[in-house]
Amino acid sequence: MGRVRYTSVLVILALALAVGVGLWRWWQGPQVQGYVLERQPLVQTVVATGRVVTTSRAQVGSEITGVVLERHVEEGDSVMPGDTLLVLRSDELAAQVREAEAALTELATSRRPQARVALERAESELAQARRETARRRTLAERALLSTEALEQAEQAQTLARNALDAARLTATALAPGNVEETLLRERLAALQARLAKTVVRSEVAGTVLTRDAEPGDLVQPGQVLFTIALSGATEIRVPLDERNLALLALQQDAMAVADAYPQRPFPARVGFIAPSIDPQRGTVEVRLAVDPVPDFLRQDMTVSVNIETGRREQSLAIPNDALADVQGDQARVWVVREGRVQRQEVTLGLRGLAMTEVLDGLRAGDRVLADPTTALEEGARVRFAPRAAPVSGSGEDAATRNELPVNFN
Length: 409
Prior knowledge:
Distance between the termini: 72 Å
Number of strands: 22
Strand order of the largest sheet: 2-11-14-13-12-15
CATH class of the largest domain: Mainly Beta
Strand content: 35-45%
CATH superfamily of the largest domain: Efflux pump adaptor protein, beta barrel domain
Low-confidence stretches: 19-28, 393-409
Number of helices: 5
Mean pLDDT: 82
Largest sheet: 6 strands, antiparallel, barrel
Shape: rod-shaped
Order of helices and strands: HEEEEEEHHHEEEEEEEEEEEEEEEHE
Structural class: alpha+beta
CATH architecture of the largest domain: Beta Barrel
Radius of gyration: 48 Å
């Protein structure tokens, strides 16, 4: 009998305890999940996708028409100023150069000495003509010679003088450094210059991107045979959504990752922000300088970049899903204080896809609801259950999302 009574008491006590716990839970309110705010480092980045470009490219062609005899480079080859790219057939030009050289040699060894000899002979003949004229004039004055014979002597003297002038002009023209030699040397220089153009050389240091010539091809002036990416500065060109323009500034640091080498990130820096917006795409072009340039980068590689647009070493951060009624830098959150929920206006700072900085309205240790759309009444009692904050980082490809997001790392 006593045993039955003891068992009944235990059952009644258990029921009373369960009712008490239930009433206590009811008094405390429903359980809600949320975040406990704390200070932590925050880095705001703009995420985008762009392509690797060199700041300059050189297009190389031939200055003369010719047939390609040899091609010395392939795509991807590195070249330096003066390196041979291709050689054109030059048989006819080489023959013309040899002909011009022979003409110069003939001038020095034959025509010039002959002109000197002709000048000396003309001087001798003029002297002889003058003596003959003087002798006949003396005879004519004595009436020992006819006037006609004197006139013939004077005419011969005039012809000799004209011959001397002509010989002197010829010798002067053929003298070293004068007209004839200058013309021949200029002709030779022109032919040598044309012959030199049969060897197409690089004028710059860089990497061959394209080649459009093969042995046997007929090439003409104006035809692009090679495209060379100049060595030196390398950039990443990125089209950023214009909504992010206010966050951008020159010299901002960035981290880039080539799609082909995802395990080898490299630094970059904002070096140019376009002054205009692309009206069709709603984007602004940003160029990031890369220095030093990784050895694996190639022209037109696809690269993802995270541009650091803001940093806080210690900042009060709140997950974005806890924010409601966001208007500019103002928002509302549900805060749990002393077991009751209440609305709280907050001022926001750095903002991103995962986390946002709180400048005013909250402090470290505050508990905020994860669901800002809850139907709870202001001042309602709740039981708070902490939830882990979302992991920061983008993990998204801007091109895939068809937009250029802002996010925190």
